[in-house]
Amino acid sequence: MEYTKVSCFLEPDSEINREILTAQMGELGFDSFSETDKTVEAFIPSSAFTEDVLQSESLKDNPLFKVRFQTEVIPDQNWNEVWEKNYFKPLLVENRCLIRAPFHTDTPKAEYEIVIDPRMAFGTGNHETTYLMISAILSQDLQGKQVLDMGCGTGILGILASMRGAETVKAIDIDEWAYNNTLENAEINNITNIDVFLGDANFLGKHKFDVIYANIHRNILLQDLPIYASVMCKEAEIIMSGFYLEDLPTISAKAEEVGLKPAGYQERNNWVAARFIR
Ligand SMILES: C[S@@+](CC[C@H](N)C(=O)[O-])C[C@H]1O[C@@H](n2cnc3c(N)ncnc32)[C@H](O)[C@@H]1O
């Protein structure tokens, strides 16, 4: 997939202004972010980007800061190199789960080691939401469970669930790169009980799950929660992430509307992973 990188220069530039801007751009469809000393870099599939996006009122009329944009198209074939060189660092979650790329050497030993060839699929653990999801998975008893990894990205959550004893994992992503990347990563990690599908919640049918992971955008979660709830067994749990603390009441209200009970949440740098039980 071809991406557009928008470098955002903030005036004044501060941690809180960067957070606000990142949240606003997330609302506008940007799905990955990184930071440099001078800018916030926001990435969006080129197919979803027009210059009009940057003229949105939420960005232009912010009383706290002004922002100047510089856009650059990143051709599809460069992602692997760009990502590997600049963004993907080996990561140890909860001192138990190491996530590394095939080219990382000299890494610490851990109870679980997941090798991720990241391409441009989201999910190396370096983002707060993936980190939160991995922490949550490490705390679960997954022996013999039927797991759904919705919006699988690199497949990292489903791979860890399988390593932790899940009986079967279905991984679904709307993005072809993510679909292919999950297949590759499952193979690299010798995971044989993952089925990977290209699609969205409409793909879900009669099969019921004990555990669902959905680290997707707030609006997708709100839209697709009724479908997720419909494929949860009794007492199944769903862990959702990909939204900010201030969105938790809205997500919780929707979850309760479709028959799910809140069962706690974790927060990291204002991102949330929330658990609900059917
Ligand atoms: C934030 S990433 C999460 C990736 C990975 N699960 C993780 O935790 O790091 C969200 C993923 O959801 C996918 N996605 C977006 N909308 C979707 C939808 N409606 N149905 C399924 N997947 C979707 C994106 O392509 C992306 O790979």
UniProtKB/TrEMBL annotation:
Q: What is its EC number?
A: 2.1.1.-
Q: Which GO terms describe its molecular function?
A: protein methyltransferase activity
Instruction: Please state where this protein is localized.
Output: Cytoplasm
UniProt-listed Pfam families:
PrmA (PF06325)
Keyword entries, A-Z: Cytoplasm, Methyltransferase, Ribonucleoprotein, Ribosomal protein, S-adenosyl-L-methionine, Transferase
List, alphabetically, the SUPFAM superfamilies matched. S-adenosyl-L-methionine-dependent methyltransferases
Q: What function does the entry list? A: Methylates ribosomal protein L11.
> What protein is this chain from?
Ribosomal protein L11 methyltransferase
Q: Which organism is it from?
A: Prolixibacter bellariivorans
Task: State the taxonomy lineage.
Answer: Bacteria, Pseudomonadati, Bacteroidota, Bacteroidia, Marinilabiliales
